[in-house]
Write a structure and sequence with these properties.
By secondary structure, the protein is an alpha/beta fold. The protein has four domains: 3-125, Rossmann fold, CATH 3.40.50.12160; 144-258, 2-Layer Sandwich (Transcription Regulator spoIIAA); 262-268 and 292-379, tm_1862 like domain (pyruvate-formate lyase- activating enzyme, Alpha-Beta Horseshoe); 384-441, OB fold (Dihydrolipoamide Acetyltransferase, E2P), CATH 2.40.50.140. The protein is built from 14 helices and 21 strands. The chain has helices spanning 12-27, 51-70, 80-86, 89-93, 109-119, 166-170, 178-190, 217-225, 245-253, 270-275, 282-295, 314-327, 344-348, 355-378; strands at 3-8, 31-32, 41-46, 75-79, 97-101, 123-125, 148-152, 154-155, 174-175, 195-199, 207-210, 213-216, 232-236, 260-262, 300-307, 331-336, 384-392, 399-403, 409-413, 422-430, 435-440. Strand 1 (3-8), helix 1 and strand 2 form a beta-alpha-beta unit. The protein starts with a strand and ends with a strand. Bound molecules: S-adenosyl-L-homocysteine (SAH), iron/sulfur cluster and FE3-S4 cluster (F3S).
């Protein structure tokens, strides 16, 4: 039996895709191994979102040359967004790559592996699709803790934010049949999973037409939440332009829908937001934040932000800091702008903020956010939460960690608690990243 080893980079959607790839190949008789030394094929599922994401993959490919010297039969394939962006050019630039497969072409993998092996050729398949959702594939849960799992509900993106490569690497937006989504959630619940995360680049634009009926994202959430009141439901990512009150209403009305919204702001400046083609301004964004707090006062809010987008002034950077001070996010993913080939920004704008200025602005955002996260966590001291236990704490075998509905990590002494259980924990201390608590008798 030939064995594949899969390595995944990038966003949650890529991790979900790797599970589809594993499933497709297992059906064809391939084994999946966690030991690279046993593998006949190494598949690297890549990200192209920023230049450093791609540099990391290229470095990894250099490291893998040593592995190939030990095992000359080893074939390396590149999957995912970098495969789609660079296509067969990648095999010219990286000599040790034998095949390149884009995100909509994974069904072709078994065929391509055969060609690579039996004909000794190189192969590329990077056609994007307007319909592929892999909705009939039951993913093989890789590296899963058996407690939480991802469910991909849509693919692609056509928002064309000026800085972003995703519309080019993932193709047109398309939604997956809700019945297959609910069936997957039900199957996970039956296997003992306690939490599912519904994934899409902009879940708010999820839409499925079924004759007269349209299933939109709030309705889909309702259906998944109904699978079991003891199975938690999360989702990512929400685009602020489409975050509806209807969704907030559904979230508020189900205890098992987690009270946590990731709402990428990108910038606090209206001119930047317009240039980024985000289709909202700071007033709209703050109105959506107010709506979240109105429906769910205990909801945590997280974000993504870009420092130093094309022509960003010092004043505009200050507006981003002000936005952070106003919203007081619980967590943020913070990035320096990286110009990506073929995007609107690359064609029409100039990457004119010097790197050291981008770095300094990013550091200012990180410092402010660190302070806010710590203060937010200090507010949690004394509160008691229901925590879904995920596993052993990294620091000590005597402690377990889990998350509350707000997605905050809580660490506590294990006693006789097991991963997968729900327990009640009272917060007694904190850092900026973690809450430390004590078990409370139910
Ligand atoms: N679909 C999601 C985000 C996907 S990419 C959304 O629209 O919110 C994740 C994050 O990477 C983005 O939110 C953005 O903050 C960041 N990002 C995307 N392209 C980037 C670029 N060229 N340079 C720096 N950061 C970028
Ligand atoms: Fe990229 Fe914008 Fe689509 Fe998000 S919504 S994936 S940032 S184009
Ligand atoms: Fe990266 Fe592709 Fe996700 S570019 S962030 S892996 S959609």
């Amino acid at each position: 039996m030939s064995k594949i080893y899969i390595e995944t980079y990038g966003c949650q959607m890529n991790f979900a895709d790797s599970e589809i790839v594993a499933s497709l190949l297992q059906k064809e008789g391939y084994g999946v191994t966690k030991e690279i030394a046993e593998a006949d094929y190494v598949l690297i599922n890549t990200c192209a979102i920023r230049d450093n994401a791609e540099q990391r993959i290229r470095k990894r490919l250099r490291e893998l040359r040593a592995q190939q010297q030990h095992n000359p039969q080893l074939r390396i394939g590149i999957l995912g967004c970098m495969a789609e962006r660079l296509q067969s050019q990648l095999m010219v630039e990286e000599e040790n790559v034998s095949f390149v497969v884009g995100p909509d072409a994974y069904r072709r993998l078994p065929e391509l592996l055969r060609q690579v092996r039996t004909l000794g050729v190189k192969a590329a398949e990077t056609e994007l699709s307007t319909t592929e959702t892999y909705d009939d594939i039951e993913p093989v849960r890789l590296n899963s803790n058996g407690i939480s799992a991802y469910i991909s509900i849509m693919r692609g993106c056509q928002n064309y934010c000026a800085y972003c490569v995703v519309p080019y690497t993932r193709g047109r937006e398309r939604s997956r049949d809700p019945e297959t989504i609910v069936a997957e959630a039900r199957s996970l619940w039956q296997q003992g999973y306690k939490e599912v995360t519904l994934l899409g680049q902009n879940v708010n634009s999820y839409r499925w037409k079924d004759g007269e009926n349209t299933v939109d994202f709030p309705e889909l959430m309702r259906r998944v939440a109904e699978v079991s009141p003891r199975m938690r439901v999360r989702f990512a990512t929400s685009h602020p332009k489409d975050l509806s009150d209807k969704l907030l209403e559904v979230m508020a009305s189900y205890d098992n829908i987690c009270k946590c919204i990731h709402l990428p702001v990108q910038s606090g400046s209206d001119r930047m937001l317009k240039l980024m083609n985000r289709h909202y301004d700071s007033a709209w964004y703050l109105d959506r934040i107010a709506a979240i707090r109105r429906y769910m006062p205990d909801c945590s809010i997280t974000t993504d932000v870009i420092a130093g987008f094309c022509s960003e002034t010092e004043e505009e950077h200050q507006m981003t800091l002000e936005m952070f001070s106003k919203v007081r996010y619980d967590y943020a993913y913070m990035f320096k702008f990286s110009m990506r080939p073929n995007t609107y920004a690359e064609k029409h704008l100039v990457d004119d903020v010097p790197d050291e200025v981008k770095t300094r602005r990013l550091e200012e955002i990180i410092a402010l956010q660190g302070q806010i996260a710590l203060e937010n966590n200090q507010q949690e001291i004394g509160k008691t939460y229901e925590v879904l236990v995920e596993g052993e704490s990294h620091r000590s075998k005597e402690q377990l960690f889990g998350r509350n509905s707000q997605n905050k990590v809580i660490v506590f002494d294990r006693h006789d608690v097991l991963p997968g259980q729900y327990v009640r924990v009272k917060v007694v201390r904190c850092t900026a990243a973690t809450l430390i608590g004590e078990l409370v008798d139910a």
